[in-house]
Design goal:
The complex is a heterodimer of chains A (241) and B (75). Chain A is α/β, with parallel strands linked by helices and 241 residues long. Chain A has one domain: 3-Layer(aba) Sandwich (Rossmann fold). Chain A is 42% helix and 16% strand. Chain A has seven helices and seven strands; from the N terminus they run βαβαβαβαβαβααβ. In chain A, α1 packs across α7. The N and C termini of chain A lie far apart (40 Å). By secondary structure, chain B is mainly α. Chain B has a single domain, classed as ACP-like (Non-ribosomal Peptide Synthetase Peptidyl Carrier Protein, Chain A, Orthogonal Bundle), CATH 1.10.1200. In chain B, 51% of the residues lie in helices and 0% in strands. Chain B contains three helices and no strands. In chain B, α1 packs across α2. The longest helix of chain B is centred in the middle third of the chain and has 15 residues. Classes of the chains: A alpha/beta (241), B mainly alpha (75). At the A-B interface, α4 of A face α2 of B. The structure holds NADP nicotinamide-adenine-dinucleotide phosphate.
């Protein structure tokens, strides 16, 4: 059974992708702060296919000891990583609050980088040609009012992914980003329907991005079917125009 | 411990399709004598951590086999 680390599996897209992974025969190591009822039920239904690590990704310095030393150890190989957990601090730039910005960078950028560091080491130890998938956002490509700070974290992750691919390709390790469009999750729940409609109008399909479609793209990028795909940004966004 | 270290270094060499070493001296240089590049050193680091529980590159410079041995014995 292949082991995949998924951050932020308690709800939203992370939960959706975790369900798809489990039903396709993967073992998921979920990292999130809370255990939602949905995640608990999934664990009940598939006890062998899901391990949950409760961890706050704002604690970057604790990743090595709490996740890798205490929980994972060296014996269990890691085949893939879905960097999904993120927070969206939105405001206009003239209101920028450094504390909130710094926390968002810890969760969205620094922690994924440190996780990647130790996951690559694990892959080297077990000689695994693993696959890393970052969930980026269309906001990094098409500007939206109020999302400058959030979008910048995704831009950072896209650059990191590209360079990960370049650096580790010779070991067979791949890294790609899925550039997701707006999805109906808690993250986007504060938008009113007028704002949402404005966003959906800016897409070819005129509708929200489907979490299932993003999840299945993630599964494709983890699988050998995508063995020649690396250093890419795949847009799963209803065709933003 | 020196034998285990030799075994680990040879694993990294073999994974690259290089010839194994018969012995090590404390002055053996990881890059210049053994020919490790940065990716080999990354693999060496994790193999040593998995065996001895120490990240040799976490602080300070490690250039020779002797540097690794003193890191491991310092734990
Ligand atoms: N929703 C959208 O429209 C949209 C669009 C484009 C891209 N995205 C991206 O898609 C990904 C998933 O977003 P989503 O919409 O599913 O968001 P969501 O519903 O808010 O879920 C976020 C997940 O991240 C986890 N998380 C947040 N902060 C954490 C922390 N400090 N430590 C550990 N886990 C943490 C949460 O778990 P806990 O609360 O249990 O910790 C939760 O499982 C994100 O990368 C987001 O940027 C979303």
């Amino acid at each position: 059974m292949k082991n995949i680390i998924v951050t932020g599996a308690s709800k939203g897209l992370g939960l959706c992708v975790t369900k798809h992974l489990i039903t396709n025969g993967y073992h998921v190591i979920a990292i999130n702060r809370t255990i939602s009822t949905n995640l608990k039920n999934l664990k009940k239904d598939y006890p062998e296919s899901l391990s949950i690590i409760m961890f706050d990704l704002a604690n970057v310095n604790q990743i090595h000891s709490d996740i890798f030393q205490k929980e994972l150890g060296f014996n269990r190989p890691i085949h893939g990583f879905i960097n999904n957990a993120a927070i969206a601090y939105d405001d206009i730039i003239s209101n920028l609050d450094y504390k909130k910005l710094e926390e968002m960078y810890r969760v969205n950028v620094y922690s994924p980088m440190i996780l990647t560091k130790y996951i690559i080491r694990h892959m080297l130890l077990h000689k695994i040609s693993g696959s890393i998938v970052h969930i980026s956002s269309i906001s990094a490509h098409t500007g939206y009012k109020g999302l400058a700070m959030y979008a910048s974290t995704k831009g950072a992750i896209e650059a990191f992914s590209l360079n990960t691919a370049r650096e580790w390709g010779e070991k067979g390790i791949r890294s790609n980003c899925i550039v997701a469009g707006f999805m109906e999750t808690e993250m986007s729940s504060e938008l009113d329907s007028q704002q949402k409609n404005r966003i959906y109008k800016r897409t070819c399909l005129k509708q929200p991005t489907s979490q299932d479609s993003v999840s299945k793209t993630a599964l494709f990028l983890l699988s050998d079917d995508s063995s020649s795909i690396t250093a890419q940004n795949l847009f799963v966004d209803s065709g933003t125009i | 411990m020196e034998n285990k270290l030799l075994e680990i270094i040879n694993t990294v060499l073999l994974n690259r399709g290089n010839e194994e070493l018969k012995d090590l001296t404390k002055n053996t240089q990881l890059r210049n004598d053994i020919g490790f590049d940065s990716l080999d050193l990354a693999e060496l680091t994790v193999r040593i951590e998995a065996e001895f529980g120490i990240d040799i590159f976490e602080d300070g410079i490690v250039l020779t086999v002797g540097d690794i041995i003193s890191k491991i014995t310092a734990i």
